[in-house]
Amino acid sequence: MTEQEALLRKISASSFCALDLHLYLDSHPGDCEAAAKLDEARRETQALTAKYEAAYGPLNDNQRKTSRWAWITNPWPWDV
Question: Residue 16: pLDDT above 60?
């Protein structure tokens, strides 16, 4: 396995962890420990992605900085 492939696997694992924690927090919003782990997983994913992009170029084209609650803010699509 090349260094590039190893880095991609780390990014994939960290990203999956963040997604899984995000889904868990949708049904357990008061779990502060899980929220802290989500923040840690997001920071790790960002750091790994930055390292990858510095060495191998852009990973994707949809890097957005939003709150994890942004999807529930008003107005809803059918309200406009």
Answer: yes
